[in-house]
Amino acid sequence: MNKIDYLDIDGRILRMFVLVYDEGSVTKAAERLGITQSAVSHGLEKLRTIMGDPLFVRAGRGITPTHNADAIIDEVRLLLRDMRSLSEQRKFDLATVSGQFVVAANDIYWGTLLGPVYAQITAEAPELNFRVIQSGIDAAAVLRNEECDLVVTPLLPEGSEFKQQKIFTDKFVCFYDPDVTSAPKTLEDYLSRRHARIVFGAVDINPIDQILALQGKHRRVTLQVPNFAGLPELMKGTDVIAILPETLKSTFMRDFSRVPSPIAVEPLSIYQVWHQRDDDRPLHRWMRQLIQQTARKI
């Protein structure tokens, strides 16, 4: 490293470097930072001069990190965490805390859990920006890459660097439109109906179908959607039924009736998961406590 210029390095430039490294794209890094591509390019050029290395080179339509970039990325991440920790050593005051806190969660929990959480944030931490993103299959990746601060999920990521806390349990029930059809009274009655299911991502797997397959049984799925929000509009006015988490009774499925699931389905254990680097951050601790307290009321 150039000993004359190393003091020109600041946290913003290092943050740009990390995001370009993670995204493999200056454009995507700029989008995440909310700045122009030229600003990111300028920051990278400054860091390249200081490091005496191009850091990224063209690879097809994208860019790839140099060996030097690969060698320093972990150290840069650690340095950014230390800088953030240093800034948070001041007295923690919710009334003045600013910045952004990002939570990844499925839309099923936006209204029941995160709605009340946000109401509390606006009351106690009015300067804090709260961002919710759709959770994906790979919670480990979004936490490692610092795309979010916390994930609400029933799927625990693998890795010793993650911490988790169970916040509530969600059982499964069978929803139906009482204006069109009746509740299934037996398993055979249930299997004879038309069904809706939720399938996330490109993997065509649903736990209800897996349970039935183990019993040598099959149901006719006539409606499939990728999230919970779109299901009620499609189900309403039809004889389609659906086994879903009971939490939906107060949000998306509020206009439907429900009965216990005709199939024995293990309740969902819902966790909040975070990276160990954030374990002692005052804001992060406060947010985890708020989410836990709110979840107890569900």
What does this structure look like?
This protein has a five-stranded mixed β-sheet with strand order 4-3-5-12-6. Strands 10-7-11 form a three-stranded antiparallel β-sheet, with no helix packed on it. Helix 1 crosses helix 3 (37-51). The mean pLDDT is 90. It is elongated. By secondary structure, the protein is α/β, with parallel strands linked by helices. The chain has three domains: 6-87, Winged helix-like DNA-binding domain superfamily/Winged helix DNA-binding domain (Arc Repressor Mutant, subunit A, Orthogonal Bundle), CATH 1.10.10; 99-168 and 269-295, Periplasmic binding protein-like II (D-Maltodextrin-Binding Protein, domain 2); 172-265, Periplasmic binding protein-like II (D-Maltodextrin-Binding Protein, domain 2), CATH 3.40.190. The chain is built from ten helices and twelve strands. The chain has helices spanning 11-23, 26-33, 37-51, 67-87, 110-124, 139-144, 187-192, 207-214, 231-235, 282-295, and strands at 56-59, 62-65, 99-105, 128-134, 150-153, 162-170, 172-176, 194-198, 220-225, 242-245, 257-260, 268-275.
